[in-house]
Amino acid sequence: MSLLSADRDLTRDSYYAATAPRETSYPALQGSRDCDVAIVGGGLAGLSAAIELALRGHEVTLVEAHEVGFGASGRNGGQAIHGLACDVEVIEAQLGAQAARQVWAMSIEALDLMRERIRQFDIDCDWRDGYLGVAVNERKARELFASADRLERQYDYPMRRIGIGDIGQWIASTRYCAAVHDSRSGHLHPLKYTRGLARAAEALGVRIHEGTPVTRLAEGSRPQLFTPEGSVRARQVLLAGNVYLQGVAPALESRIMPVGTYIVASAPLGVERARSLIPCRAAVCDNNFALDYFRLSADDRLLFGGRVSYSTVTPANLAESMRRRMLRAFHQLADVKIEHAWGGFVDISMNRAPDFGR
Fold this sequence. Notes:
Elements: H1 3-10, H2 15-19, E1 31-40, H3 44-55, E2 60-63, E3 79-80, H4 88-95, H5 97-120, E4 128-135, H6 138-155, E5 160-162, E6 178-187, H7 190-203, E7 207-209, E8 216-218, E9 224-227, E10 230-239, H8 250-253, E11 257-266, H9 271-277, E12 283-286, E13 293-296, E14 302-309, H10 318-329, E15 338-348
Parallel strand pairs: 1-2, 1-10, 2-7, 4-12
Antiparallel strand pairs: 3-6, 4-6, 5-6, 8-9, 9-10, 11-14, 11-15, 12-13, 13-14
Helix pairs in contact: 3-7, 4-5
């Protein structure tokens, strides 16, 4: 099965799509158009860039092959956490200490910017403050606290340390022996947020076109995007298509790797049972290499993510295999059914660090 075929299958049972009815659609591009900046991809990266450019007076056209939020932006774990997917030491080794601090500051600015946009554009996306990083054994606990110490000492980013004696007040799981709490990070409904950004971008004058795949990119002093029924010529083109850029920019394809990741949503637990699992209702993520991440939804379900696939093959019995992972964290949910199971592919670099290119 191809990546795109597997990906389409993984969209069909998304909890996010089931709880965020689509209220706005955008027409496919027809005919030729000129603009300042053309953006490929209607996810968080493309829409955020479109908003920033429009606020600065640029004329922007955004094309999306499917619909806004179709890819990872509308199907992810919904966790907005400080830092990057790799440790800060990796960035320091690549760029040096000073530039690494700038990269770190960008990740914190992103958290503040999300809150600002939610307020500015009145986006109803179930935002909630709080992130809990957890460790499954003593070695992982030492690593977790050492990382927190480093961030506080070198990046001026304090977090609360939680030892084995207190962790039961934060999470009702015997799997974890230590944690750190970050009140500045948080979580949200990613599809609601992405669609909210699209509405904001359109209100600022951005032209959005769904159902408009790019068939060819012609580079040059004024690059041009070709689509089935039209074209866009621009001063600059931003490619924000994640794993969906196959054939559009071949030079980039060798630098990224598509990885499958998966999530399930439990049946509603009720307010009290949900609160008993994670009293602070923070997003939770362990510090294993192949990690588990989970959180409570606004309607008191447990959304539990994990597993990775480095092929295009979806794991067999996805819902049941994810349920077993969920029960490792919360054995008290043995009577709870899984009502949604979905996933998708994201592009990552080989060391999980940003590829800074130029």
